[in-house]
Amino acid sequence: IAKAHGVKCIDTLTGFKYIGEKLLDYEKQAGGRGDLDDGAWRERLLERSTFFVFGGEESYGYLTGDFARDKDANAAVLALAEAAAFARSEGKTLLDVLDELYLRHGFYLERLGTLTFEGAEGAAKIQKLVQSFKADPPSSLGGRALERVQNFQDDPQTDADGKPIPRELMLLFHFAGGARMAVRASGTEPKIKFYFFVRREVDGADGLPSVKAEAKEELDRFWDEIRAQAEVRVGV
């Protein structure tokens, strides 16, 4: 969506602190806001740096504008209400608008799978499991061959600005056809998390319901397959 509108899209590690860090980078690059009003500050950012439009985190939380450096539910609700009002002005619902995006850009779907291991023994199991996927990546997922692995701990990664991404034990597996799986240990809970992503082309509105159903079924199969692998790797 960003590319279609000529807007830069930045990927960071999970955590709103990384979005806030990017906002600080842009502020410094622009030479600071000082006493500029909103309009003048926007022009300075566009001229010298990057004007921030919207940020969101994987689990939850959104931010519109750079006046805050953390997730802002109040602003998110206002943005959603504005979007709903725009849709209604055209005789549509928010779901109608979302389906239009799918028809234009393809259907994207994600699924999160988690395994919980309590206590010190559980923490050791989580680390063992992450290290297992690091040392022995799955050669395929749901019949899709593994194409490459991004190792955010050992291999240098940069964002779209060319800035190094902090090292973290997270693995991102890329499979044929654009499917992906990310693996990371939770930083706040005794869990290991598996994120699954698929994208499917959509021929037309009539075929969209079946595309949605097929994508969901494929993600369910991915999770069943990885959960079975986890049991073999560490004895879940």
| Mass-distribution shape | globular
- Taken in chain order, the helices and strands follow as HHEEHHEHEEEEEH
Structural class: alpha+beta
The radius of gyration over CA amounts to 20 Å
Indicate the mean pLDDT: 94
Q: Distance N terminus to C terminus?
A: 39 Å
Helical content (DSSP H or I, runs of 4+): 40-55%
- How much strand content do the residues show? 15-25%
What does the largest sheet look like? 6 strands, antiparallel
Which residues form runs of ≥5 with pLDDT under 50?
A: none
Strand runs, count = 8
Tally of separate helices: 6
In what order do the strands lie side by side in the largest sheet? 3-8-7-6-5-4
**From the structure provided, what is the oligomeric state, counting identical versus distinct chains?**
single chain
Descriptive key words:
236 residues; alpha+beta; 6-stranded antiparallel beta sheet; two-stranded antiparallel sheet; globular
Give a verbal description of the structure.
The protein has helices at residues 16-29, 38-48, 73-89, 94-105, 119-135, 208-234; strands spanning 54-56, 62-64, 107-116, 140-141, 144-151, 170-175, 180-185, 191-200. A hairpin with a 5-residue loop joins strand 1 (54-56) and strand 2. With 236 residues, the chain is an alpha+beta fold. The protein has 6 helices and 8 strands; from the N terminus they run H-H-E-E-H-H-E-H-E-E-E-E-E-H. It is 42% helix and 20% strand. The chain has a 6-stranded antiparallel β-sheet. A two-stranded antiparallel sheet has the order 1-2.
